[in-house]
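Quick one: C-alpha cells for this chain, please?
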Amino acid sequence: MTIATQELSVPNPWRSVGVWMAALLALSQLVNAIRAVLDPTSFASYLGLPLAAQGDAGLIHVYALRATFLGLFAAYLIARREFVVLKWFALLAVLMPLGDLVLTYSAGAPLATVARHAGYVVFILVTAALLQRLTSRSS
C-alpha cells in the first residue's frame, strides 16, 4: 500500500505564522524532553504533577521519549513541507495539553499551572487554524 501526499506550492513557508508556531511547538517538545531527562523531579513539579516517590521518575523518562518523537516528527513535517499532515498533527496533538489540563486540575495543581496547559491548548488550536489557512490558500 502506498500513501501519497499532496505537495503544496508554498513559495516561502517561513512567511506563515502557522509554520513558525509549529516550529516553536516542535522546539518546545525537544526542550521539554531534555529538561525531563536532566531533572525528572523538577520537571514533574513543573507539569503540575509532582512525583510521589523518587522511583516514579521513570514515568517522566517515558514522557521525554514521547516528547522527543513529537518534536522530531513535527520538525520532519516542516522540513518536508507536509503542511496538510502537520495541520492534522497539530489538531490531534491538542489532546495532550487538554489531558494535562484535566489531570493537573484534578490533582489540585496551582491555577497558574492549569492555565499554562490551557494556554497550550489555545496555542495549538491557533497553530492548526493558521496551517489550515495556509494549506487552503496553497492547494
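The helical segments are 17-38, 40-47, 57-79, 83-93, 95-106, 111-138.
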